[in-house]
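For the sake of transparency, this paper describes our internal protein records without simplification. Because each token names a local backbone shape, the row as a whole describes the fold. One such record is reproduced below, unchanged from the form in which we store it:
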Amino acid sequence: MDCGGPSASVPGPSLAAVLRAGIKGSPPSLPKHHWRILNALLACRTLVLGGHRYLCQECGQMHFVPHCCRNRHCPLCQGAAARRWLAKQEQALLPVPYFHLVFTLPHVLNPLIQQNQRALYVLLFEAASQTLLEFGQKRFGVQLGITAVLHTWSQTLLDHYHLHCIVTGGGLSTDGSKWVASSERYLFAVRALSEVFRGKFCAGLERLYSEGQLKFHGKLGPLAAPTAYQGLLRQAVSQKWVVYSKRPFAGPRQVLAYLSRYTHRVALSPKRLVALDTNSQTATFTWKDYADGSKRKTMRLELREFVRRFCLHLLPERFVKIRHFGFLSNRQRQSRVAQVRALLSLVVMSVAAVAPGPRGSAHTVVAAGCY
């Protein structure tokens, strides 16, 4: 068994076991790319991939260590990948407040996104990042630093497309001469963010359609007609677009703790799998019902439906789901982070003041907004 279940005393099935049972007998019709991912997950840490034998110098016994698939959709391999990624991100962490915002697309667009994942995932990144960067420029006259992580799932494995954004509380001035800090408790009004985000995303949808870059297959075929497509856009615009702002992080360490949980998360953690019943061809897993006070509940799905839902969240080939924008963008990341660190140290030094204490001792006053 590859992993534990919800508790150590009652182990649940592995994800590989559930997927294997779901595709056994009558394999579903899937793209080749999806089959490559599933085959990698099924082979992970098994003899299929081989392994290494090590001779223990203490006990004198040979130990076999199986190879991992290293696929980014594999929950068994993402722990090590997350630790490697975090080690790099720690170098760019700054002593400033950080804010957490979530941009969510309305579910009416889900069928269109399913058939145009790459194009609309890219559009989601663009619309959200451009919205934040524009607000940073207009409100503070700065370039923000943004790290965005794509998530595509809900707790029940259905499609729920949203972007988690970690945003610096302030940014680098346009001329690069100073750091301008935001409030430690507030960044932007979410209602205004949602309106601009909606406008940018829908404008992008119009552009993609006019350029013929969208696909309409099967049941989505009728949407290829201009009148039907415009009707979909009107329906999307009429709905509420959610931009959620969570409480600001308590400091850089909390940012890293969050990133370690979210950046390399897959659609279903192995700990959530409870049972696999091959007789009834069902799998049971736990989920958190946020509409009911975040109560922990269980859900049982037919195996074919479980596989279908899991495959909704397999990313396109070579698609980058973690992206950086503003002064954290990859082109200028290293030099700009060094520049910001230098500016922050100058701010602290410029406002540090020495004053006599109760017995002639001195104390230091540090710039607000710096930890």
